[in-house]
Amino acid sequence: MTGTPDEPDFSGLEGGDEQAAQDAVQEVVNWYNTQIIAERRAPAPDEERIEELKASRQTALADQAQLATADPEEAEQIAAVYAARLRELNES
Fold it and tell me: What b-and-e string marks burial along 8-26, b requiring 16 or more CB atoms within 10 Å of the CB?
């Protein structure tokens, strides 16, 4: 088991589980959404950070859309990348 108790664990993926890949990407999108909202509500919002967060969120959404046509190997790779990214984001 990796990460914290409230962090999803996608390390057990086998055979390109597309749903787990969707979940991994969605968790990252949710993280970006939370950060964007928090930054917008800050007393002095950092517009550059907001734009960076929105661009990163858009990349994640594009990868999520790609899952619709991904083969099992691609789905597994996307899930692994996004599980790692979520761990990084939560540690930052």
Answer: bebeebeebbbebbbebbe
Task: Read off the tokens for 13.
Answer: 């993926």
> What is the C-alpha to C-alpha distance for residues 32 and 17, in angstroms, rounded to an integer?
23
Class of residue 83 by CB neighbours under 10 A (exposed 0-12, middle 13-18, buried 19+): buried
Q: What values do phi and psi take at 17, rounded to 5?
A: -65, 100
pLDDT digits (tens, 9 = 90+) for 9-66: 555 544 446 888 899 999 999 999 999 999 999 999 999 999 999 999 999 999 999 9
